[in-house]
Amino acid sequence: MKLPYGKQEVAVDLTGCLKVKTFTPPEPEALADPESMTRASLSGPVESPSLGALAREARRAVIAIPDRTRPRVAGEILPVVLDHLLEGGLDLGQISIFVSTGTHAEHSDEDLRGLVGDTAAGLAVYQNRSGRLEDYEDLGTTRRGTPVLINRKILEADLKIVIGTVAYHYFAGWGGGRKMLVPGAASIETTRANHRLTIDDKGDLHPGCRNGVLDGNPVHEDMVDAARTIPGVFSVNVVLDGWSRIAGVVSGDLIESHLAGIEAARPLLEMPTGGRCDLAVASAGGYPFDLDFVQAHKTIDHAAGCVRDGGVVIVLAECADGLGSDNLMSWFELGGAEAVSRRLLWQYQIHGHTALALMKKLERIRVILVSSLGRRTVEGLGMMAARDIEEAVTLADRCPGEKGLTYIFPCAWGILPVA
């Protein structure tokens, strides 16, 4: 079969395996109409006045959208949102776009144009630059002591609309919603303090910071505390199916509408697999889900959960933008998970927890990465490097243990296999 890789597909031949099961997200009977779903959602939101009613009371509006590492849903949702704002009495000079890049790399003008599309032509477009401290206003601290420093381009508008995608997240539980503001529109200090909560008092990964978990998840709860300090927020939650296509839209109160979106998304994205397999072959789903290794790690995390101890995961992720982190490799130079845990306790840095999470998985399984990263880089991260899928299958055959049961995941970034 063919699996997504970057902006193309690669063929994989597993005819030598004894038993192969492919977990393909179900195809809907008919693709949903994003425009009609969005209009209905904006008119009948969850625990909030309609967007049109909010626009009639507003003087300025800002629309926060996902950055280039997420599915490009804004182009289909923005026209409807803009219609409601204009119908509510705002003009284009009172509306701006904000790209919630969080701590991700700064976007080029071409990237920004690709995200907002022709609909937003003429609108002012801003992006988060988390290291520019002069861009932020201090809104206090959360119950856990996280400083809430939020971009002024968000706070200058009395009506903030956040468009986020509801998808699994390996330590925040779920993406979208409050995450569009923290870390999406937050400073590096806010994000660092929040992500530090992934590490418990012993230097281990906090057990509550897992895919799909919100209750008892300190990162999520801290994000909610921080986001609640920002007034005038209306949330548009785009529910994705297993192929990362728009399957629903739930709007309204920032927190409550996000929870409603999660309930709609969970049955679409959770895939029971039965027992654990010996070998998993997982494509991130192609661009933008394999844009860099930090994003591709989410695919490794999803696939690893359904593989037995000592098993193998082959991951297809192009990583055209490299690692996606300036400091990720340095954590692997400390000498192992125990040393990383000690360092994180007294000198936490963003992506340190990503390194620790990968190390913990590699204590249990082998990972073979098919990517454009250099072999030395991949091996420095503790994985096996393969030029292509054929070499990866050969390397998997050489690993100790049976390869009797093989699972294939054509789009593992978006779905959560449950063994």
Q: What can you see in these coordinates?
A:
This protein is of the alpha/beta class and 419 residues long. The protein has 2 domains: 168 residues, LarA, C-terminal domain (2-enoyl-CoA Hydratase, Chain A, domain 1); 236 residues, LarA, N-terminal domain (Rossmann fold, 3-Layer(aba) Sandwich). The chain has 14 helices and 20 strands. Strands 3-19-15-16-17-18 form a 6-stranded parallel β-sheet, with helices on both faces. Helix 1 packs across helix 3 and helix 9 runs parallel beside helix 12. The protein is globular, with a radius of gyration of 21 Å. The mean pLDDT is 91.
* Adjacency order of strands in the biggest sheet: 3-19-15-16-17-18
Query: What is the mean pLDDT?
Result: 91
Radius of gyration over all CA atoms, rounded: 21 Å
Biggest sheet character: 6 strands, parallel
Residue ranges: pLDDT <50 for 5 or more in a row?
A: none
Whole-number count of domains: 2
CATH class call of the largest domain = Alpha Beta
Report the end-to-end length measured between terminal Cα atoms.
23 Å
**Would you identify the CATH architecture of the largest domain?**
3-Layer(aba) Sandwich
CATH superfamily of the largest domain: LarA, N-terminal domain
For this structure, the CATH topology of the largest domain is: Rossmann fold
Q: Give me the number of helical elements.
A: 14
Strand content: 15-25%
Can you count the beta strands?
A: 20
Overall SS class: alpha/beta
Q: Per the principal axes of the C-alpha atoms, what is the gross shape?
A: globular
Give the fraction of residues assigned to helices. Answer: 25-40%
